[in-house]
Amino acid sequence: MADLDDIRDGDNFGLNTPADTSAFYLKGMNSASWGIKNRMSRIFNRDSGRTVMLAFDHGFLMGPTSGLERIDLNIAPLAEEADCLMGCRGMIRTCIPAENTKPICLRTDSGTTILTEMNHNVLISEQDAIGMNVSAMAAMLAIGDADTEASTIANFSRLVDIGNKYSIPVMGVTAVGKDMTRDSRYFGLASRVCAENGASIVKTYYTEGFENVVAACPVPVVIAGGKKLPELEALELCYKAIQCGASGVDMGRNVFQSEAPLAMMKAVKAVVHNNATPAEAFDLFNTLKNEN
Ligand code: 5RP
């Protein structure tokens, strides 16, 4: 039992001392297997060490939400600009051509929708992930949710066992517990739980103090975009996360619900891979938007 009356917040994150990446270009991977390193290399750009993942897994919870009505029409044309595609098996099989050579991060938990109690998820079969030749598997952890925290952590640990067996990296997706404050203390805890349980990648949300979240997480951190924002604000979010040490984004709504999704993908890539400022990336977005 944790000593709940004496939990001291960390305050020494060694922000000026980067993690050792001398043996492999991504942090936390020194002791990973060849197969995990190889798959991580497909996802994370070798030059920038970062990734722009395109998330379109939302439908398994919320159905054909805006921008995902027709994944064959909405997402497939964006695939070439993404470093990695993150979605569910049914939509990838039916809507993404098998000739696709972009790495796949497969959403590997399922079981609830927005119509009922969320987060009572189970894992799909690993045979599907292996058969689909995926580069990573993702599952959500509902940290702070009294009903589902334990089961989602157990799911996640099992998925890491499977991932280690077949050398497939596992990404922990931090869901937001309804009673938790969305601050760096919470996201730092949730991200760390993912890493402690063996995640090779952590997906979480940007917040003030994000540099501490990233520093305390020994593997690459990518951010979700969250609800649709005006394009400039979304680019500012990406920029701030990257400046705090994030290794990229796994972004959905702020791309596919944009008025110009392809232009937005390219603008996000400029921030993530080329350190473009939000203003520069927004200029790029406007230029490309008007060309389309
Ligand atoms: C919450 C998630 C979803 O998988 C989704 O990918 C979020 O993407 P965005 O917030 O950028 O639309 O992370 O389970």
UniProtKB/TrEMBL annotation:
Q: Record's superkingdom?
A: Bacteria
The EC number(s) attached to this protein equal 2.3.1.245
Write out the entry's keywords from A to Z.
Acyltransferase, Transferase
Q: Which InterPro entries match?
A: Aldolase_TIM, DeoC/FbaB/LacD_aldolase, DeoC/FbaB_aldolase, FbaB-like
- SMART domains in the cross-refs: DeoC
Keyword DNA repair, does the record have it? no
Q: Name one GO molecular function term.
A: acyltransferase activity
Q: Name one Pfam family in it.
A: DeoC
- What this protein is called in its record is 3-hydroxy-5-phosphonooxypentane-2,4-dione thiolase
Q: Which species does this protein come from?
A: Oceaniferula marina
